[in-house]
Amino acid sequence: MRISKLLLLAVILAALGAFYGLGLSQYLTFEFFSGLKQDNPGLTATIFFLIYVTVTALSLPIASVMTLFGGALFGFAEGLLIISFASTIGATLAMLVSRTLLQDWVQSRFGNYLKTINSGVEKDGAFYLFSLRLIPAVPFMVINLVMGLTRIRIWTYYWVSQLGMLAGTAVYVNAGVKLGQVEEFSVKGIATPELILSFVLLAAFPWVAKGLMAFINSRKVYKPFNKPTTFDTNLAVIGAGSGGLVSAYIAAAVKAKVTLIEKHKMGGDCLNTGCVPSKALIRSSRIHHYVERAEEFGLKNAKVEVDFPAVMERVQNVIKQVEPHDSVERYTGLGVECVQGTATLVSPWEVKTGDKTITAKNIIIASGGQPFVPNIPGLDQVDYYTSDTIWNLREKPERMLVLGGGPIGSELSQAFQRLGVQVIQVDQSERILPREDADVAEAVMAQFRKDGIDLRTSCKAVAFHKEDGRQWLDAEQNGETIQIAFDVVLLAVGRKANTSTLGMENLGLETNPNGTLTVNEYMQTRYPNIYACGDVAGPYQFTHAAAHQAWYAAVNALFGRFKKFKVDYSVMPWATFIDPEVARVGLNEIEAKEQGIAYEVTRFGIDDLDRALADGEAKGFIKVLTVPGKDKILGCTIVGYHAGELITEYITAMKHGLGLNKILGTIHIYPTLSETNKYAAGEWKKAHAPEKVLNLLEKFHRWSRS
C-alpha cells in the first residue's frame, strides 16, 4: 500500500477516533442544534453541513435520519440547499476514497454489483447513474463505493448525483419539516394530514420515480416508431422450442390471444435434434453396454450385435412418439394460432412472416440456438456433422472424431463408443467438463478411458486435410504437432443464439459478447414490450431453463402493467447424461472459490451404498457444499447412477431453505439410491457432532450403570 493511501487511512481513523473519543457524539442532538441555531444560524448550518459531508464520505448508514433531522432544523428551502450539496460532496468523496484506498475491500464486499454497474455505465453513462440515484434500487452507500471502481469522471459523477438525488432529498426534507412541526408526540399530534401526506410521499417516491424512469426510457426507445392503435394479438411468440411453447401455453391458459411462429419444426432443438434424440441414443448404447457386462450379473453367453441403422431409426421413432406433445394440432386445440414461417421484426409491435404482418401488443423472442461451427482451415473439405445433423447418419463409421469436451460432446462420445464406433474425443482444455470440479471430471474421464474412448485433452485443432483418400486432423498437443485420422467428425464446441433472421437491425436490439440477446431481470430487451427467453437469451442453455424463463417472460408480458416478476436463477440445476451421470445444483468448489464464498465439503461414496452394490453400479460420489458450521446447502454435485433423479431432493431443499438436518430426518425407502442423500447428510451430522455434549452423556451413562 502506498504512503498516500496509508496517510488517508490514518486521517480517517483519527477523525473517527476523535469524534467518539472526545465525546462529540453527545452534540448530535436536536436540542443542541436548535439552541445553537438561535444564537448563530450561520455556524449551525456550517457545522451541520460538515457533519453531513463527513457522515456520507465515511459511508455511515445514518444519512436518511440526518436528512429528516435537517428538514426539521432548517425548514424546507434552507434544509434542501444544505443537504443537497452536503450529500453530493460527501458521496463524491466516498467515491474517491473507494477509488484510491478501498478497491480490494469494495471488490470483495460488493463485487456482485460491480459487473452490472460497469456495464450500465458503459452502455448509458450518466443516464444510468441518474437512474440509480433517482430510483434507490441499490443503496446509495454501495453506489458511492462501487462507482469508485468504474471509469466515470469525477465531475460527471458529482453533477449527475446532485441532480439525481434532488427529488428524493426534497421528499425526505419535507418529511423532516413536518416532523419538526409536531408539538406533541401523541396519536393526535402525529396524525395530522400534513404529516401523513409527507410520509405517504416518502413511501410512494421510489414507485413514482421508477414509473417516471420507465416512461422516459420507453419514450426514448419508441420515438422512431408509430405504435398501432389496435393489435391482431396480445402476444406474438417467435420460436416453438421449449421457451416458445411454454410462453404460448401460459398465454392461452389465461385466455390471451397468442400467435406462435415457427420456421422449422414444432418442439425446437430439444425434440428434434437435442434432448430427445440424444437420450434415445444413450439408451440404446447403455443396453448394449449392459449386455457386454452380462457375466458380472451371472449371465453367460449373452451376445448382441449393434444394428447401427436400426439404432438411428429408433431415435427417429422416439421423436415421432414425443412429437404430438408439441404439435400444431395440440397447440391449436389449446387456442394458440400457429404460423409456419420465418419471423422478422419490423417494429416493436410488428412481426412479418412471409407476406403477412402481425401486430402484437407484446412479443417474446424464443428463437433458440444452433451448434457453433468453428472457423478451422480445411473443415469444408471433410465429412463433418453437428449435434443438429448427426441424426442423419445411418452407416456406422469406424472412427469418429469428436471436437469438444462439454456435455453434448461427452454424451455423444460415450454413446457412439458403446455402439461400436472408435471415438477420438479432442478438447483443448486440460480436462473435459471444465465447468465441473476436477474430481468430477477425473471420475468421468476414467470411465471414458475404460470404455475405450481415445481421450485427447490439452489438444487444439489446427486444420483439417485429406491425404490418400483419408481424412486427418492436424492438432497441437503439449507443444507437439500431431495428426489424427478419422472417418467423420462431430463438432460439439458450443452453441450460438439464433438471431440472424430476426431483423434486429430494424430495432437496434442489443446483444451480449457471446451473441445472446441482452435482457434485464424481467426478461425484457431494450423495448419493454419485447421479451426473450431460452437459448437466444442465455445465460443457461437447458430446456428446463428456457421453460423457467418463459414463465417470467409470458407473465410479465401479459400482466407487467400490474406486477412484474424478476427471474430467479438461485436454484438452477442441470445434468450431463453420461455414465456415470453428473448432476449439479448451486455452487461447486470452482465457483465458490471464484466468488470468495466460504464453504465446507461433505462427501459420501456411492460405492458403499447397498442398492448401488446390488445393481452393479457401485461407483461415484455425492458432494455437498454447506455454510461453515451450518447445514445450509450452498450446492450439491452427484456423480453416479441416476444422478439426474437423485439431485431433485437437493433442488427442493435449496429452493425452500431446507438444510441437511431436514434431509437426514426424512424417511428414505430401503434399499433405494435416494438413501445416498440421507447418508451424505449423516456424514455432515457426524462431522458436526457436539463433542462436549457427547462427553457429558458418556459420563451420565457411566454413572447410571453404577
Automatic annotation (TrEMBL):
Keywords carried by this UniProt record: Disulfide bond, FAD, Flavoprotein, Membrane, NADP, Oxidoreductase, Redox-active center, Transmembrane, Transmembrane helix
Residues that span the membrane, as ranges: 47-73, 80-102, 126-147, 154-175, 195-215, 235-254
GO molecular function annotation: flavin adenine dinucleotide binding; mercury (II) reductase (NADP+) activity; NAD(P)H dehydrogenase (quinone) activity; oxidoreductase activity, acting on a sulfur group of donors, NAD(P) as acceptor
Enzyme class: oxidoreductase
EC number: 1.16.1.1
Cofactor dependency: FAD
Claim: Transmembrane is one of the keywords in the record: yes
Pyridine nucleotide-disulphide oxidoreductase dimerisation domain residues: 572-679
Pfam families membership: Pyr_redox_2, Pyr_redox_dim, VTT_dom
Positions of the VTT domain: 63-176
UniProt cross-references to PROSITE patterns, sorted A to Z: PYRIDINE_REDOX_1
Domain spans labelled FAD/NAD(P)-binding: 234-550
Record GO cellular component, one term: plasma membrane
Protein family membership: Belongs to the class-I pyridine nucleotide-disulfide oxidoreductase family.
PANTHER family named in the record: MERCURIC REDUCTASE
Protein name: Mercuric reductase
Gene (name only): merA
